[in-house]
Specification:
Blueprint: H1 28-39, E1 46-50, H2 57-70, H3 95-101, E2 108-111, E3 115-116, E4 121-122, H4 128-139, E5 148-153, H5 160-171, E6 177-183, H6 191-195, E7 198-201, H7 207-216, H8 225-232, H9 236-244, H10 247-259, H11 266-276, H12 280-303, H13 315-322, H14 326-348, H15 353-369
Parallel strand pairs: 1-6, 1-7, 2-5, 5-6
Antiparallel strand pairs: 3-4
Helix pairs in contact: 4-5, 7-8, 8-9, 10-12, 10-13, 11-15, 12-13, 12-14, 14-15
Length: about 375
């Protein structure tokens, strides 16, 4: 009996791996910036593809990789070169696409967190051993004049030794090498890595692009994609998780409870807590949505206006009543940080998840009374 394949560190739960995505949505500016650099024939060796989680950074990196590896060599002789490509698309039946999807393309190397056989789980960081494999990769011959592509997903996860090894490659890149560094938090990288890369910034997705991204991932978008875009912060990855966990309906229950405070509907609060306690994923989703509500509540008080769109019916009215000014916003922000952290610590030591959630709701009700 064959062993199950190890999970992929760079694939979001409930979504296909980015290498299988034929298109990226909402990142036209980043695609255009790369194509403009490619068109002038002076392609930087290092690219930092930066932005929030789940907005298509890795999908863009894989599109760029396929494009570069499929690009025909520059013509020699008297003939004028063809016009520069206007898109990163390659033919659907191109052999490069098939080999990239199968992770069998010899001119492409993926660097990501590996599997720890001793502990039976993915490593928490990308180790220097993963990066050292690039020496052998670049030592092999190439058939297209030497072009090689490396995807690091994600550069935030490089441990110090691995980061220094990547830096050395950026400082002394092999001929024809292109390094694509997917990065959620550029500020966490070595400044010297950032300085040696051209930055492509990816932005949160709007409602329409988010709905298209979900459809492309095989996930049916909800009837109100604007509410999902608000709650997911424009992240397709977060949206997939919310759809899978019925996040919009769950968030609507949280909004209804908060809207009634300081007269908390205790039976409804207990029912919510008991439902969330049925499995760890539901507990974490509920906790994350309470955290999202409190963040949006605090932001409303600090800015003096509600978010551009409601993530659930009655949200704007609840925000206006519970956070009428900056002082209330600060109080809610402090309470959110304390309560959510305490609940996660309690769950880590196996305290009853339902009781933890009820305690949070009671504490929030007390805060509303104040």
């Amino acid at each position: 009996m064959s062993e199950a394949p190890a999970p992929e560190a760079d694939r979001a739960d409930g979504a296909p791996h980015p290498r299988h995505a034929p298109a990226v949505f909402g990142q036209h500016a980043a695609e255009s910036a790369f194509l403009a650099a490619h068109a002038v024939g002076r392609l930087p060796h290092g690219w930092l593809i930066a932005g929030p989680r789940g907005v298509g950074k890795a999908t863009l990196a894989w599109r760029i990789a396929r494009f570069l590896l499929a690009a025909a060599p520059e013509p020699a002789g008297l003939f004028a070169p063809p016009p520069p490509p206007a898109t990163l698309d390659i033919a659907a039946n191109h052999p490069i696409g098939r080999r990239v999807a199968a992770l069998s393309e010899p001119r492409l190397k993926l660097v990501r967190r590996g599997w720890d056989d001793d502990r039976g789980r993915l490593r928490a960081v990308i180790t220097v051993d993963e990066v050292r494999e690039l020496a052998r990769f670049f030592g092999l011959s190439a058939t297209d004049g030497g072009r090689r592509v490396v995807i690091v997903d994600a550069a935030d996860e490089l441990n110090p030794n691995a980061a220094n090894a990547i830096l050395k490659l950026l400082e002394e890149p092999p001929a024809g090498a292109v390094l694509l560094l997917v990065c959620h938090k550029p500020a966490a990288l070595l400044p010297t890595i950032r300085s040696r890369c051209r930055v492509l910034r990816c932005s949160p997705l709007g409602a329409d692009d988010l709905a298209r991204a979900l459809t492309g991932a095989g996930v049916t978008p909800p009837a109100d994609p604007a509410a999902l875009a608000e709650l997911a912060g424009g992240s397709a990855g977060a949206a997939v998780a919310l759809v899978a966990g019925e996040g919009l309906a769950l968030y609507a229950r949280i909004v209804a409870l908060m809207a009634g405070m300081p007269r908390l509907d205790r039976p409804a609060a207990i029912d919510l807590a008991e439902t969330a306690a049925r499995d760890p994923a539901a507990f974490e989703t509920t906790l994350a949505l309470i955290e999202a509500f409190l963040a949006r509540l605090a932001r409303t008080g600090a800015l003096g206006r509600p978010p551009a769109a409601e993530a659930a019916p009655g949200e704007a009215a609840a925000f206006a009543r519970l956070a009428p000014d900056a002082a209330a916003a600060r109080a809610w922000a402090e309470r959110a940080q304390t309560l959510v952290a305490r609940a996660r610590r309690g769950r880590a030591v196996n305290l009853d998840p339902a009781a933890l959630l009820v305690d949070i709701l009671l504490a929030l009700n007390e805060g509303a009374a104040r």
